[in-house]
Amino acid sequence: MQITTTQKYSPKLxxxxxxxxxxxxxxxxxxxxxxxxxAIMLSGTxxxxxxxxxxxxxxxxxxxxxxxxxxxxxxxxxxxxxxSIKRKSLSKEDYVFRSSVNPGTHMNMRExxxxxxxxxxxxxxxxEGATPHNLRLSVIIAYAAAPK
Length: 148
What we know:
single chain, 6 helices
């Protein structure tokens, strides 16, 4: 019997400079939905929490915060962005991040990953091995390492 070893997986983590460039990319996006999507991703929120989010789950609480399903997230891009997204929707039951492939459903992970790589290219950040989950891990680590 032959025993093979597997290579240990190590996720690609983004450094503080890369996170800053990604954040600047979000602020400068033309699409309000993409601004909001990347801002939520940069908060460390799980993909499974924000992808199925509906308009009714989104609130502006003031002081640069939004509430998504009861969780407060810093969103300095401006509360007007959220109000504009709400006005564009037909119903409170609409998904905030709609699928471009399957109308009537929310964006899936493949669509999110494709957009994410596009944003990384705009931010001049290497896309090799980069995933939305790696961004989440990087944000959490950066927050934990920040001086208190």
